[in-house]
Design brief:
- By secondary structure, the protein is mostly beta strands.
- The protein has three helices and 13 strands.
- A hairpin with a 2-residue loop joins strand 3 and strand 4.
- 13% of the residues lie in helices and 53% in strands.
- It is globular, with a radius of gyration of 19 Å.
- The chain folds into two domains: 98 residues, no CATH class; 99 residues, Lipopolysaccharide (LPS) transport protein A like domain (lipopolysaccharide transport protein A fold, Sandwich).
Length: 209
C-alpha cells in the first residue's frame, strides 16, 4: 500500500491523521478509506471490541496501531492527539480513542499543556474532545500545575476545558485545591472551581509574611 497524501483545508481549518504509512488530512476522507480496509482485517482475525471502551457505540469500524491526529487552524497547530485504538460508527459524529495523549499548542507553536486519559474521543463536527478515566492535565506554563479528574471536555468554540466532576489541582510547591465543577483555558492560567472548594497550602503562614 502506498503512502497517500492530500491537503484539503475547509474554512482555513484542517484535521490531519497519520496512521503508520497512511497520511490523509480530513477525518471523513480517512475513515472512508481506512476503515473499509480495517473492517476486512478485523473479520479475518475475529477481533472483539472492548465493551467498556465502546459503551453504547456500535463498533462497525476499528483500527489498532500508533496513530497521530492533529488539528490546525489557518496553518497554526492547535492540538496533537496520539492513541493506539480507534473505534468509529459512521452513523455517529464522534470517534472513540484509547488511550488519550493530547498536547495543546499556543500561537507560537509551543506546547502549553498535556492531557492524558484512559479513553476519550473527538466530535468530527464540533471538533470538541472528551476524556474519561484517570484524566490528568499538566500545564507547561503555570509552574507545572496539575489537574486530575475522571471526566473532562475540551470545547473548541470557547477554547476551554470543562468538567462537572470532582477535580483536584496540585502545584509543584505542594498546594492542593479541590472541588466539584471546573472551567479553564487549556494551559490552566485562568481557572475556576464551581462549588465545594477547599484547599491545603504548604507553609502558608511563612509565605504570607
Amino acid at each position: 500500500m502506498s503512502d497517500g497524501r492530500r491537503n484539503p483545508v475547509l474554512n482555513n481549518k484542517a484535521i490531519e491523521i497519520h496512521m503508520k504509512i497512511i497520511s490523509l488530512p480530513g477525518i471523513s476522507i480517512l475513515f472512508i478509506f481506512l476503515f473499509v480496509f480495517c473492517m476486512s482485517c478485523d473479520s479475518r482475525h475475529g477481533k472483539n471490541v472492548d465493551s467498556a471502551f465502546v459503551g453504547d457505540t456500535v463498533a462497525e469500524q476499528e483500527f489498532e496501531g500508533e496513530t497521530v491526529i492533529t488539528r490546525s487552524d489557518s496553518g497554526r497547530l492547535v492540538w496533537v492527539l496520539r492513541t493506539v485504538h480507534i473505534v468509529k460508527n459512521s452513523a455517529e459524529p464522534f470517534t472513540l480513542v484509547e488511550p488519550v495523549n493530547l498536547q495543546f499548542f499556543n500561537q507560537q507553536g509551543k506546547i502549553i499543556s498535556t492531557l492524558s486519559a484512559l479513553t476519550g474521543g473527538f466530535n468530527e463536527k464540533s471538533e470538541d474532545i472528551f476524556a474519561k478515566g484517570q484524566v490528568k492535565v499538566i500545564s507547561q506554563e503555570q509552574e507545572d500545575m496539575e489537574l486530575t479528574t475522571e471526566k473532562l471536555d475540551y470545547l473548541k468554540s470557547t477554547n476551554k476545558i470543562v468538567s462537572t466532576e470532582f477535580v483536584q489541582i496540585k502545584t509543584k510547591t505542594g498546594d492542593v485545591m479541590e472541588g466539584v465543577g471546573f472551567e479553564s483555558d487549556p494551559n490552566l492560567s485562568h481557572w475556576s472551581i464551581k462549588k465545594g472548594v477547599s484547599g491545603r497550602f504548604r507553609e502558608f503562614k511563612r509565605r504570607m509574611e
